[in-house]
Design a protein that fits this description.
Layout (H helix, E strand, L loop, with lengths): L14 E5 L7 H14 L5 E9 L7 H12 L6 E2 H10 L2 E8 L4 E8 L4
Parallel strand pairs: 1-2, 2-3
Antiparallel strand pairs: 2-5, 4-5
Length: 117
């Protein structure tokens, strides 16, 4: 199904998987995309992001090189830390529930509707 996730996403899904999408956009645009997912999903659904999660602090990380790449190749796109994903989800009416790391650089970041929103 074609479409524009800035306008809407299909309703009624059990899970909304966005693989390497959110890092392409600045915070306001990322919140808009996540907000469209939240508007389309039931309270029992979840959002799953397959994204790189930067470590907190100043420790070395290959992900920081990927963050520099986003700076050069996009208009505001960036890699984010767990705290930054948590803030994006909160602004979109979602709550980060867990991050599942993989053997590679990409993690699965899960969020559910925030009942307090």
């Amino acid at each position: 199904m074609s479409g524009d996730f800035f306008d809407s996403v299909p309703e009624g899904g059990d899970a909304y998987l966005l693989s390497n999408i959110i890092h392409d956009w600045d915070d306001d645009q990322a919140v808009q995309i996540l907000g469209r997912c939240r508007a389309a999903m039931a309270d029992t659904a979840c959002v799953l992001l397959a994204e790189l999660v930067l470590p907190e602090g100043r420790q070395p990380s290959m992900g920081k090189f990927a963050d520099l790449e986003m700076l050069v190749m996009t208009s505001g796109g960036r890699q984010r830390t767990e705290a930054e994903y948590r803030a994006l989800f909160g602004r979109a009416g979602l709550r980060l529930t867990r991050i599942v790391p993989s053997a590679g650089m990409i993690s699965l970041v899960e969020a559910i509707p925030d009942s307090l929103s």
